[in-house]
Amino acid sequence: MANIICDYLEKQNIGDRSKVDFQAINETLNHIVDQIKQDVPIQYILGEAPFMQWMFYVNKNVLIPRPETEELFNYAIRSLSSTIESLKVLDIGTGSGCLAVSWKKSRMKDIVTGMDISSEALQVAAQNSRTLNVEVEWVQADFLQETNGLGGYDVWISNPPYIGVHEFEKMGTNVLQHEPTLALFSPIPEDAISFYRTIAEKASLFLPEGAQLFLELNEFFASEIQSLFDRRVYNSGSIIKDLQGKDRILHLRKSL
């Protein structure tokens, strides 16, 4: 934590030893401490969070990137390492754009679109694409209701909202009070996999043959989520564990 704050101060030039402003340092540190006492996540206080080897701007309108989502990203990119042609990729519920922007940074030939219901989240995502100097198309739409513009993609990737009521009591106040509800909680709180149901329904309608789907999973419902996808439609489906041994990633390929 101390190293993170020191790095932040240096970026603000407050820690410039040639012209130290101790009053500015004190004011900044006091502000940070006050925010921490209110359980505000340090990433929101500093306005940034790491994802892969890049730093992303974040604020209260977007979910803070998690290590589990890095694992989703790494797995997807590795799975496509032998694919050299340009792919069309849709990131569903893009938030800060960490998946979409990192994808474009890693596979520059691919055409990447990030979709989110929140205009405020898309402003954050657009800022990140500008800062990291990549071109991503940002689309404001409610995936749960949208029927236009979902076809023609080679890849769908998503970290959907998947926390149900049974998990509320396990959540820290820093998450419950400060991170965006839309990005965290299932649209139907009593049904933690409701967003996955819609993904399954729309994938069967709009994903072309041979297209691939990479989903971050709610670890408690991995098998139930996998069962939403008709095995007659998908010729392969794998649940991959994360570094903690939890069911975390679902990888599907639509049959030819």
Structure, explained:
With 256 residues, the chain is α/β, with parallel strands linked by helices. The chain is globular. The mean pLDDT is 88. 36% of the residues lie in helices and 19% in strands. The chain is built from 10 helices and 9 strands. The chain has 2 domains: 2-37, no CATH class; 63-254, 3-Layer(aba) Sandwich (Rossmann fold). The protein has helices at residues 2-11, 22-37, 42-46, 67-79, 98-106, 119-131, 173-176, 181-184, 194-206, 222-227, and strands spanning 48-51, 54-57, 88-92, 111-116, 137-140, 155-158, 212-216, 234-241, 247-254. Strands 5-4-3-6-7-9-8 form a 7-stranded mixed β-sheet. The protein has a two-stranded antiparallel sheet with strand order 1-2.
**CATH class descriptor of the largest domain:** Alpha Beta
Helix proportion: 25-40%
Derived from helix and strand composition plus strand pairing, the structural class reads alpha/beta
What is the number of beta strands? 9
Strand proportion:
15-25%
The SSE string, one letter per element, is: HHHEEHEHEHEEHHHEHEE
Summarize this structure briefly:
The protein is of the alpha/beta class and 256 residues long.
Draw up the topology in text.
Layout: H1 2-11, H2 22-37, H3 42-46, E1 48-51, E2 54-57, H4 67-79, E3 88-92, H5 98-106, E4 111-116, H6 119-131, E5 137-140, E6 155-158, H7 173-176, H8 181-184, H9 194-206, E7 212-216, H10 222-227, E8 234-241, E9 247-254
Parallel strand pairs: 3-4, 3-6, 4-5, 6-7
Antiparallel strand pairs: 1-2, 7-9, 8-9
